[in-house]
Amino acid sequence: MTPAPLTAAAQAAATAPLGEAVALIRPFLRDIAWFSAWLTEQTGQMRLDPLYLPPVRASRNGGVRHLVFVRTERIWLTATILDLAGPPADRLHFSGRHALCRPLNRPLHGEIFRLEGDRAVRARSIDCQPGTMVDVDERHQALRLAHGGGLLMMLRAQVAPLGPVLSRGVDLGTGRTSTLAQVDEGHARTLMLLSLLRIQHRHDAAPLFAAALDAPLPGQRGAPMREYLALDTAQALDPLTRMAQVDPDVNVQALARQTLARLEQVACRA
Question: Could you tell me the pTM of the whole model?
Fold first, then answer.
């Protein structure tokens, strides 16, 4: 099980500003006695019972394997093993979070890139020895690990800021942003619930659809509006009209105007 102090720190960090949340998690990568004790206990259990499974979630994506000690909406702390035998990726990932990395079995070598506008440029080299830690503000920095030397094991924490997170992928060949993604688990859950309510024809839930339109990111306003229109087009017309007139994002305004025009065409044909 996840150590109680780590669980308590993650709970306290859930509502804290980014700097305070990182400060709450950092001690668990600086002093890893808890991790050593956990490994000792779990390997002892596996010696006693070959079928024993450690009580933490495990995941794998290609050459990256994780043991997940904390996974909340804002905090992710893992023991991670990376296979660095192959060629490095040709893309950089700016996760929108703050990352803490502590190598365990050998030094971590790589480069830090930083965003300048929508371009990524090399900032500095990294040579992080076991027992030390590297901080990367992945809102505008990305760490590219040097490949070679086999497996790298590290403790890694990612802490998200309050509210939605904007992540981006950057093509190393051009240095240009290739992908943008709005990462907000709270919004994803809200949108799923709105979809369920729409499928169930819950017209009495229309106020919830209207409230979901008050979201900070442009894409987060468009998706609930589509669900609202599918649930009750008549009730959604006034909010859609306001969106077409006063939404702070010009792209959202344009999409709302296009939707209104299509609805008017349908009404005329009817």
Answer: 0.73
